[in-house]
Write a structure and sequence with these properties.
This protein is of the alpha+beta class. It has helices at 5-9, 28-38, 40-44, 57-73, 79-84, 143-147, 193-197, 220-229; strands spanning 2-3, 48-49, 53-55, 88-96, 99-104, 108-113, 127-133, 136-142, 160-166, 169-175, 177-185, 189-190, 204-210, 213-218.
Length: 230
Amino acid sequence: MVKTPEEYFAALNFDMPQTTGSHFSLNAAEESFVQKYLGSDLLAHLPEVQPEALMPSAVFSATQEKTVQDQKEKPHADLRTRLLSESSVQMVSFYVREQIFLLPVSVIVEVLRHMPLTRLPRAPSFVAGVVNLRGKVTPLLYLDALLTLEKNYRYTQKSFIIVCSIKEMHLGFIIDNVHTLYTLKQEQFSWNAEIHLGSGAEFLCGIADIEGKLYGIVNPDIILEKLLTG
């Protein structure tokens, strides 16, 4: 079953959650990121942004709640293992430099348009910067740096951001555009992306076969690990 974003969200009307103040209560992953790249002084002065969402957080709340529960029950299970246990999986497809990739709806918090960010001079090249997104420290990452061979990474007024939650930390993945929404059956997946893509599968957890075309499934777990340890 395939739906465009317009079809899927046309009948929905969501109020965005309101957040006041810029107080941070950091978990372990956020604390590691702040210490590595940001520092407490810059953190204290990071302006809070509350952008309008293209696909609001309420859309993803049900699958997010299930994911949080799954992570509590199986704290050491990675994304690939969790997805393997599902008979069908909802996926959002999106463009990165004319290529289509997928992310499970279960890890997505919201989809946003371009927003101002704070640059981080000490961060690796795949990190565009960081924002205080409604009181949550949220790094924005160039997916074209991680998934393509492009050398000039792109973040423009036309860019979109898929905000994902991984181990209670938010990551913003910079993309060119949202493609569509799929509900895929387990038999459409291959969870050994390296067989098809070799070394290019470093940041993928699997491949989906959609009408005879193969699309890579982005692995936020591995990207977060690279961000915090690389």
